[in-house]
Amino acid sequence: MHRVIVCGEGPLAAAIAQALRDATLDVIATADATGVERAIGTVQTRGERIDALVTVPPNRTAEETILATPEAMWDDIVDRHLTAIFLACKAVVPHLIAGGGGAIVNVANAAAYGRGHRVAESASHGGILAFGAALAYDHFNDRVRVNTIVAGDAARPGDIAPVAAFLLSPEAEVMSGSILDVGNVAYQGGR
Amino acid sequence: MVIIVTGGTFGIGRAISLTLARDGHRVVAFGLESRQPSSVAEHGAATLPAEAATLGLHIDALEADVSQADDVRRVVDFALATHGEIGGLVNNAAIGPLGTILTTSQDVWRRVVDVNLKGAYLASKAVLPHMIARQRGVIANVGSGGGWGKPNMLAYSASKGGMFALAAALAYDHAADGIRVNTVVPRPATLTGMSLGRIGGDMNRYRPAPAAVGRIGTADDCANVVAFLFTPGAAGLNGAILDAGSLPHQGGPVPAPP
Question: Which of B148, B166, B250, B254 to mutate to test the interface with A (most CBs of A within 10 A)?
């Protein structure tokens, strides 16, 4: 494990990038799947490879019950919270397979367990959990590990970043398809 | 940190004891020296300190039964007398006789629940006052994919499912005391006294499960994840389940190689 793309913006993406640099990894920070593709292209041009991808979700932007969620808003939230993860992973998986394997960590938030006034966001983040497991199954024999962190409501970037670094480390190399709650008793959605 | 490892003298527990000692912790391991139901583990306490010494490490190993409150108290008293504190506990001790509800006798059921689930309760109960007094502590449970329910593992599944809930309940109750309680799930069929015992000790019948990195999983894999829980980087983990098993979390079979 040497070179990692961190895909996402904000304090959490920055904290994860820093934790990975502290673990002596070469970090490429990107905002979206287009950036992931560009980074892969650049690295390939140098005859090098990417070993891992970490995706970080965008911040919450709206209060939305189903009644207050027009179709366009649903599409926008699912695009930014779920489809963006799909596209980033889709860009990197063939590259990881070609390199003999790799690791992906997707960070979801606690809306994955369902949260009020966050209908589209909940659906998106619940989707990230199932998407990660499906990806882990499909590429198990390609040695591509896929794990998902659920950032609990009270979890701070400093709580999450070292866990992401651990999941990319050799000590976690048998972990794939797992969902790891970070934050206080967030598994059950508690706070 | 001073860490007590139940069942820490053999199998996954032994790997955990050695890994924690390697990381600089003072480890007090205990287990039973005679063979337990459906296990080939024996004489672990007699051999662990010497193995640790060959690695330049020190581990205290005692014989004690985790299902007996007096035995657990004796281990806790030893740890306090020897090291002056207890900062960590690994609830690892377990037995895993196979069987459906039709083939599981009341005696087997009771012994499995007593060792796997009541043992975790007794050990946690014994160490918690010392952790609360210092307002910090780390408890790691070794769970099992059986905790989500598996065929022909009735009593074992029930005991391990109970451990998930026990850990989460402890995590809620003592978060404000600065104590973190998490559970690590090892790979199925990790080679141990338990997995070998389930096939009558016959290595020819052993079918290891491949890990996601294209090799066979070992007890050290689980030990590495447990060891992470005792590092500052795990400060944000409480009440969590860390699945070191590659996919049984979701209950699904691991895909066969093409």
Answer: B250
Whether A54 and A5 have beta carbons less than 8 Å apart is answered as yes
pLDDT digits (tens, 9 = 90+) for B138-178: 999 999 988 888 888 899 999 999 999 899 889 989 999 99
Nearest-angstrom CA–CA distance, A161 and A25:
13
Task: Write the CB contacts of A156 (distance below 8 Å, at least 6 apart in sequence).
Answer: B236
Q: What is the ipTM of this complex?
A: 0.80
Nearest-angstrom CA–CA distance, A74 and B193: 53
pTM: 0.89
Measuring CA to CA, which residue among A92, A131, A96, A139 is closest to residue B257?
A: A139
Full set of structural domains in chain A with CATH: 3-182 (3.40.50.720)
**pLDDT at residue A188 tops 50:** no
Residues of B designated catalytic: 156
Rounded Cα distance between A117 and B126, Å, is: 43
A168: left (phi over 0), alpha (psi -120 to 50) or beta: alpha
The separation between CA B124 and the C-alpha centre of its own chain, rounded to angstroms, equals 13
Do β-strands A3-7 and A52-55 pair in parallel, antiparallel, or remain unpaired?
parallel
Chain A positions in Cβ-Cβ contact with residue B212 (cut-off 8 Å): 136, 140, 143-145, 173-177
Q: Which residues of chain A approach chain B closer than 8 Å at the C-beta?
A: 101, 133, 136-138, 140-141, 143-145, 152, 155-156, 158-160, 162-163, 165-166, 171-188, 190
Instruction: Band the pLDDT of B103: cuts 50, 70, 90.
Output: very high
Q: What pLDDT does residue B64 have?
A: 98
User: Which residue spans within chain B are E strands per DSSP?
Assistant: 2-6, 26-31, 59-63, 88-91, 137-142, 179-185, 237-238, 241-243
Rounded to a whole number of angstroms, the distance from the CA of B243 to the nearest CA of chain A is: 6
Task: Please write the tens of the pLDDT for every residue from A62-99.
Answer: 778 888 889 999 999 999 999 999 999 999 999 999 99
Q: Does B233 touch chain A (CB under 8 A)?
A: yes
**CATH 3.40.720.10 is held by the domain B2-247:** no
Is residue B202 scored above 70 in pLDDT? yes
